[in-house]
Design goal:
It is built from 2 helices and 7 strands. By secondary structure, it is mainly β. The strands form 2 sheets. A 5-stranded antiparallel sheet has the order 3-4-5-6-7, with no helix packed on it. Strand 1 and strand 2 form a beta hairpin. The mean pLDDT is 86.
Length: 124
């Protein structure tokens, strides 16, 4: 076991709840997202048919409210919040709005940085 990595318990994702539906553009024929005032669950690559059917059996076809439960009492553990910056798909900076850790993608060197206005300035 690797402490802090393999000792984490992960909750299985059974499906995905959407905040809208995809519609087809009359001009281009392309799909685009369209918001709804209800939650949307349908069978797709993220949600098996049985899960979508069970969801609709419990909540109906256009639910505006859902019952939810969090796995722990500490939101930082199940829903961490960070400002992140990526370069070519790699996380290069992660912070809380005041300080951050920047990683040089070429060398892997990590350094603390302080936010001044909209720029990160290295802490010396």
């Amino acid at each position: 076991m690797i402490k802090g990595l393999t000792d984490r318990i992960k909750i299985a994702r059974l499906g995905k709840i959407h905040l809208g539906e995809k519609k087809t553009s009359e001009k281009s024929g392309n799909l685009y997202p369209s918001a709804t005032d209800y939650f949307v669950v349908h069978e797709d690559a993220n949600t098996p048919k049985e899960i979508a059917e069970k969801f609709h059996e419990i909540y109906g076809n256009r639910p505006k409210e859902l019952n939810i439960m969090f796995p722990l009492d500490d939101p930082e553990k199940f829903f961490p919040q960070w400002l992140k910056r990526y370069a070519n798909g790699t996380l290069v900076c992660k912070g809380d709005g005041e300080t951050a850790i920047e990683t040089d993608p070429k060398t892997g060197e990590r350094k603390r940085a302080l936010r001044l206005r909209d720029n990160l300035t290295p802490i010396r």
